[in-house]
């Protein structure tokens, strides 16, 4: 499996964990006066009448109170939730200039830069600034840990996630971040504890189960990994990364049929099926269990996606040879050798075998 293929799968799953978190860290905006809108009023209005009605209610208040800092902050949040980054930043700056909560406003800007503009460096900078105004602000640690994870700064991410969970022990996202960062640091015992805590808060969190399965697999405990992957598949209805992970553990346990059919189960997802390396892996698995026709289809698809793949040519050549198409097999083996001279030490023996001059290699 190529690095890009692995990165895509991890990204798929990792995106789900990072984006699934709600806006709990922004819930500290409180009612300033009885006549003002509260964020709970706005969210209720948005839920019942739609986001346009919620925005209209804030705009009406702003007409009467153009310098009301909290209203500008609310407007910024509405823009953020609507994915309108520039407008959100402008309104957040107005709220800051008018004296609204510095930690909340900078935290909101951090999320805009990170989640909407994918500028994780700026997200980290602004989250740090928010913490400078209030070192006890849980949301600042959350936003900074999230940015650090995306930046590959796993040790500070783990530290900030721990601070976040100590301030908000019932916030499941803090344990999701800890699980992510500690896993990258290969601190498996600590990561497992974070995952267990997360599952206590969210028993049906299939992504957490999948990641705990990865921890088990990394330690060679494939039977336990298999159980966790299976439960993640059951709860989610099946995701490509889950099937691929279970397929790898099945192979480690010698269950090649399980490997083959789990790989096949992942083929419906474009995120997986656009990679030649996936089809090579699928074809090899089908070859191992004697499904020559399915293996040949996988090899053909791999070559459609990557015509200059020596591995795909070798796979198709083996399948053709076993199916009796010796001429086709020889053509594939020659193509593989031409694409990567000396790259596969078995190729000379394979060519000799299909030409009938010697025995095929074991």
Helix-strand blueprint:
Blueprint lengths: L2 H18 L18 H11 L1 H14 L4 H13 L3 H13 L4 H15 L3 H14 L4 H14 L2 H14 L4 H13 L3 H14 L4 H13 L3 H15 L3 H13 L3 H10 L4 H4 L2 H13 L3 H14 L4 H14 L2 H14 L7 H9 L7
What composes the largest sheet?
Answer: none
CATH architectural grouping of the domain at 275-362: Alpha Horseshoe
* Count of runs of 4 or more consecutive helical residues: 21
Low-confidence stretches: 1-13, 19-23, 28-35, 358-362
Overall pLDDT level? 89
Q: What is the overall shape?
A: elongated
Query: What is the CATH class name of the domain at 275-362?
Result: Mainly Alpha
Name the helicity range: over 70%
Describe the model.
- Helix 15 packs antiparallel against helix 17.
- The protein is mainly alpha-helical.
- The protein has a domain of 88 residues: Tetratricopeptide repeat domain (Serine Threonine Protein Phosphatase 5, Tetratricopeptide repeat).
Key features?
single chain, 362 residues, mainly alpha, Serine Threonine Protein Phosphatase 5, Tetratricopeptide repeat, 75% helix, disordered C terminus
């Amino acid at each position: 499996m190529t690095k890009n293929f692995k990165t895509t799968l991890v990204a798929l799953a990792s995106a789900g964990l990072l984006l699934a978190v709600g806006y709990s860290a922004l819930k500290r905006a409180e009612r300033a006066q009885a006549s003002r809108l509260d964020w709970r009023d706005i969210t209720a209005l948005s839920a019942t009448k739609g986001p346009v009605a919620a925005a209209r209610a804030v705009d009406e208040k702003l007409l009467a109170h153009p310098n009301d800092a909290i209203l500008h902050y609310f407007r910024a949040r509405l823009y953020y939730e609507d994915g309108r980054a520039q407008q959100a930043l402008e309104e957040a700056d107005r709220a800051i200039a008018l004296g609204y909560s510095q930690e909340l406003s900078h935290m909101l800007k951090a999320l805009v830069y990170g989640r909407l503009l994918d500028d994780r460096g700026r997200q980290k900078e602004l989250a740090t600034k928010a913490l400078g105004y209030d070192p006890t602000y849980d949301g600042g640690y959350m936003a900074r840990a999230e940015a650090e994870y995306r930046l590959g700064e796993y040790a500070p991410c783990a530290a900030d996630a721990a601070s976040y969970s100590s301030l908000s022990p019932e916030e499941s996202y803090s344990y999701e971040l800890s699980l992510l960062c500690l896993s990258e640091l290969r601190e498996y015992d600590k990561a497992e504890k974070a995952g267990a805590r997360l599952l206590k808060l969210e028993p049906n969190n299939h992504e957490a189960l999948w990641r705990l399965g990865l921890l088990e697999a990394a330690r060679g405990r494939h039977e336990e990994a298999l159980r966790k992957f299976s439960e993640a598949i059951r709860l989610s209805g099946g995701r490509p990364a889950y099937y691929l992970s279970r397929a790898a553990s099945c192979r480690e346990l010698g269950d090649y049929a399980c490997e083959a059919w789990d790989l096949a189960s992942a083929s419906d997802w474009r995120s997986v099926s656009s990679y030649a390396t996936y089809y090579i892996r699928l074809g090899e698995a089908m070859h191992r269990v004697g499904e020559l026709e399915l293996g040949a289809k996988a090899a053909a698809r791999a070559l459609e996606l990557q015509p200059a793949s020596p591995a795909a040519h070798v796979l198709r050549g083996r399948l053709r040879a076993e199916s009796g198409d010796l001429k086709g097999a020889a053509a594939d083996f020659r193509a593989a050798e031409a694409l990567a001279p000396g790259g596969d030490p078995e190729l000379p023996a394979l060519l000799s075998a299909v030409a009938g001059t010697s025995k095929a290699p074991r």
